Inverse folding.
């Protein structure tokens, strides 16, 4: 039975339709990637799963609970078992690295400070930043900030973790570190991971299963190998990063020759 | 014509919708305030940034306002041979009006704009969303302590403003203009009523603190999460707070002193 079950998801923002009947299953212990071009609503999907947004139609069940039928208190209880890594890291800028990781523990547990210290150091050790615990978020590089955010996301030992574009804007070393950490943490902590990304190579390296979204629908799903050998031209264009194909290079409009021959029409 | 009416209607609906959101936001804040009494350290941190850091500006402004008031008042009173009433003029002007109003305006400019910018930036950097996903309610954890700190700070700042203003008025009146110090203080004591003047002034400053902090926090929380959006929200805080202070001052003054 999947940990997250999304059925017939419809969501729109103003006049633009983001999701139109999306069905997704996220299985326990696996790394599932949600991929697609920019603006397809990948981050919106994470916010819907986390209960920060409400769908127009359809259901999202997490661990057997319909997220959008929970009371506020029940939703907050569920969120304690969900971790989320924001694209920006979303670290609290007035707290040190140590206090950021300790934040959820101090808010939700009555553990003594000595135990919180040990737990925070363990989490920071796991992401390689134990000795950076006294730095402020403004002193961290983008990659380090995401690693701190990762340590904070797993502070309460959640059942699942959602990664929002974890690789965007990272140098190759930071990218490699993050890929490795996501994979290692998923195995070591028995997590279920959802990685939202459009970095094909890195994501395909660690994902067990991939959903490709476009135009509000699931275009293709399968293991990285299956997607690599997909017969769909769209999937091939996306996975190989081809500049032209079903998604055209040129913005749709009149033919170039018509434009050149009839200047008065367009000017 | 139709277009103008339509845009007026759209503007009106937008204003009403924002007002509704603002009031719901206030209800959420107020529901979070009782929980702060068990975690008062959160409020103390904010008392420092909202109140203590505004104190210097209030202190200097109060001193100069009192000194100017004394100079201007003396020039008028001396024509009627009533310069010994300078203490009354300074104290009543400050305690009833200038203390709460000017410190409220300064508070909106110093602490209010800082609160809006801080909350707006927390929103744009996803810190508030991050807290929600950590099952921490940002309204209870971030907004409510700042609100309580604002409401507590404002009357204290207004009191400092008035006290320092009176001192400034005395320094100019007695030291520079030669008004008798005994007359200055004794007339002030006799004519300044504890309830009618001092308490009413304190009530005004509490109301201004409440409204300015509410506006500042709402503008930050409701800001478009871009640098331009935060900039606009900060401007709106100062402008709306100034209107609210001046409008409410008239209403409160009419209620408090209208029957005299």
């Amino acid at each position: 039975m999947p940990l997250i079950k999304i059925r017939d998801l419809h969501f729109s923002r103003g006049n633009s339709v983001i999701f139109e009947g999306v069905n997704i299953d996220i299985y326990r212990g696996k790394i599932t990637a949600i991929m697609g071009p920019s603006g397809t609503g990948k981050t919106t999907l994470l916010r819907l799963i986390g209960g920060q947004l409400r769908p127009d139609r359809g259901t999202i069940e997490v661990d057997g609970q319909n997220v959008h039928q929970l009371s506020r208190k029940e939703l907050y209880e569920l969120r304690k078992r969900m971790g989320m890594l924001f694209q920006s890291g979303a670290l609290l800028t007035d707290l040190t690295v140590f206090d950021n990781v300790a934040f959820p523990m101090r808010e939700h547990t009555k553990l003594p400070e000595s135990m919180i210290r040990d737990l925070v150091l363990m989490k920071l050790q796991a992401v390689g930043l134990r000795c950076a615990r006294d730095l402020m978020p403004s002193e961290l590089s983008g990659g380090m900030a995401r690693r701190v955010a990762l340590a904070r996301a797993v502070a309460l030992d959640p059942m699942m973790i959602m990664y929002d574009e974890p690789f965007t804007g990272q140098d190759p070393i930071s990218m490699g570190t993050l890929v490795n950490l996501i994979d290692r943490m998923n195995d070591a902590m028995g997590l279920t991971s959802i990685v939202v990304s459009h970095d094909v190579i890195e994501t395909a390296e660690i994902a067990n299963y991939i959903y490709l979204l476009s135009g509000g629908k699931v275009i293709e799903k399968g293991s990285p190998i299956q997607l690599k050998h997909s017969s769909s031209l769209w999937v091939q264009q996306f996975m190989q990063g081809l500049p032209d194909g079903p998604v055209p290079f040129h913005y749709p409009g009149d033919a170039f020759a018509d434009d050149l021959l009839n200047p008065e029409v367009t000017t | 014509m139709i277009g103008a009416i339509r845009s007026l209607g759209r503007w009106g609906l937008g204003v009403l919708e924002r007002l509704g959101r603002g009031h719901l936001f206030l209800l959420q804040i107020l529901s979070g305030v009782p929980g702060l009494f068990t975690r008062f350290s959160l409020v103390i941190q904010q008392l420092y940034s909202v109140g203590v850091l505004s104190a210097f500006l209030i202190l200097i402004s109060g001193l100069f306002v009192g000194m100017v008031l004394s100079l201007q008042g003396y020039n008028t009173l001396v024509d009627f041979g009533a310069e010994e009433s300078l203490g009354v003029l300074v104290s009543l002007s400050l305690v009833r009006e200038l203390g709460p109003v000017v410190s409220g305006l300064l508070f909106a400019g110093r602490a209010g704009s800082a609160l809006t910018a801080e909350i707006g930036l927390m929103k744009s950097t996803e810190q508030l969303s991050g807290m929600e996903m950590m099952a921490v309610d940002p309204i209870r954890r971030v907004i409510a302590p700042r609100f309580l700190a604002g409401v507590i700070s404002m009357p204290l700042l207004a009191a400092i403003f008035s006290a320092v203003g009176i001192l400034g008025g005395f320094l100019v009146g007695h030291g520079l203009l030669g008004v008798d110090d005994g007359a200055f203080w004794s007339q002030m004591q006799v004519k300044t009523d504890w309830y009618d003047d001092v308490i009413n002034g304190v009530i005004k400053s509490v109301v201004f603190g409440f409204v300015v902090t509410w506006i500042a926090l709402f503008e930050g929380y409701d800001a478009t999460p871009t640098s331009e959006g935060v900039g606009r929200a900060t401007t709106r805080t100062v402008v709306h707070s100034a209107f609210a202070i001046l409008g409410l001052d008239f209403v409160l003054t009419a209620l408090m002193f209208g029957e005299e």
Summary: The helical segments of chain B are 2-32, 40-77, 86-124, 127-133, 138-176, 181-191, 194-221, 227-257. Residues 219 and 233 of chain B are 5 Å apart (CA to CA). DSSP finds eight helices and no strands in chain B.
